[in-house]
Specification:
Layout lengths: L1 H31 L1 H33 L4 H29 L3 H36 L12 H23 L5 H17 L1 H16 L7 E4 L4 E7 L3 E5 L5 E5 H5 L3 E3 L7 E9 L5 H13 L11 E7 L4 E9 L5 H19 L17 H5 L8
């Protein structure tokens, strides 16, 4: 019982001892004058900053050993500099309070320190957003809008937003009237909008295309204007398409955004071809199907699954119209596969004795003029 009471009394003496030491240290600072006190405060702030720096470095090492990605390591490495500078700024603030008793000089120094802090943290947050966006671009399946080609767009937008917010904070710190600045910015924005109306339309359409992703680089697309080709670049102002003639076409994004787009690459990883053939009336329908399927099986670019198929579409004016349906893996193979299918169908029809019908017109004369019967016209006259 006596031991417990003695331990409790010792714990009660600790706060009193600490308060006594603080009071004695404060009294000593008052005796040495403001300048030595300010110097001591700055030195203490620098030492505290070093301790904080060591603590952050230790956290970086611990995080690096427990995580698989480097994003958290980069974030801590990026933030430890501003944290250390902030501790130094706090020390300078306190030293300023000791040196300047009147309000005006202290206010100017405080505002300068706050401006420097805003600048340091604005630059740090720009680096942080860049690190986060780069990490998001590596996980495109989770963050569809952020990828390698859209990373500069979002990075620049984040920098502009942070710069505007930092400028606003500086204006508030120095107690400036922002009304004139905002009015001037509004007038300049209206004038710029009218002057660059088409460019802004292309810019916003480019942002929507990047966000909505109706097509990607490498897709084969068909526009309502008739252009068909491979998308090689998607920019903020325009999209470039490489046709099968190796001609690169640049199309403004506003034109694409207001039109219909057929993406031949999206969806299932295959593209269907159609080959229409007209067999003469009287042909064996089953034999025609068999020959057309044999032609499709002989072409290596035609996929085996799903299997090719033949459809008897209709009774035409001059032929029985059939259609061969086959699938290929890449729309880029469309031209040469159609060439191979048409060639094989023609050869196998000829070998099987199946006539490929073509439009014919039979003329039946019901009555002849009376003078033609007595004196029929010669070939030259006819």
């Amino acid at each position: 019982m006596f031991a417990i009471t003695q331990q409790t009394d010792e714990r009660a003496l600790i706060p009193e001892t600490a308060r006594a030491l603080v009071a004695r240290f404060t009294g000593w600072l008052e005796t040495i004058g403001p300048w030595p006190t300010a110097v001591l405060i700055v030195v203490a702030a620098i030492i505290a900053a070093r301790l904080v720096d060591s603590l952050v470095q230790a956290l970086v090492r611990v995080a690096a050993s427990h995580t698989r990605t480097d994003i958290d390591d980069e974030l801590l490495e990026c933030l430890h500099g501003p944290v250390v500078k902030t501790v130094v700024f706090i020390g300078l603030w306190k030293a300023c309070d000791v040196l300047t008793r009147d309000g005006a000089p202290a206010l100017w120094i405080h505002r300068t320190i706050m401006t420097l802090a805003i600048l340091v943290w604005s630059v740090a947050m720009m680096r942080v957003t860049n690190i986060v966006l780069r990490g998001m671009s590596r996980h495109h399946s989770k963050f569809i809008a952020v990828e390698a080609r859209t990373l500069p767009l979002f990075d620049n937008l984040a920098k502009v937003a942070l710069l505007a917010f930092g400028s606003y904070l500086v204006i508030m710190v120095w107690d400036l009237d922002a009304t004139g600045w905002l009015a001037s910015a509004g007038v300049a924005g209206i004038a710029l909008g009218f002057a660059a109306k088409d460019s802004l339309a292309n810019l916003f359409a480019g942002v929507l295309i990047i966000a909505d992703a109706p097509y990607r680089v490498g897709d084969y697309v068909v526009l309502d204007s008739g252009y068909r080709g491979k998308v090689v670049n998607i920019g903020l102002r325009s999209t470039r398409i490489l046709t099968r003639d190796d001609i690169e076409i640049t199309i403004p994004n506003s034109v694409i955004g207001n039109g219909a787009i057929v993406n031949e690459t999206s969806g299932a990883p295959r593209y269907r071809l159609r080959v229409k053939v007209g067999a003469a009336y009287g042909s064996d329908v089953d034999r025609v199907r068999e020959v057309m399927l044999e032609a499709a099986d002989s072409v290596s670019d035609v996929m085996r699954a799903p299997a090719p198929r033949v459809r008897f579409r209709l009774f035409g004016e001059s032929a029985l119209e059939f259609e061969l349906l086959g699938w290929i893996r890449d729309p880029e193979l469309r031209g040469r596969t159609l060439d191979a299918l048409n060639t094989e169908v023609y050869r196998r029809f000829a070998s099987a004795g199946i006539e490929i019908a073509f439009p014919q017109t039979d003329l039946h004369v019901r009555t002849w003029p009376s003078d033609w019967k007595a004196n029929p016209p010669s070939d030259n006259e006819a």
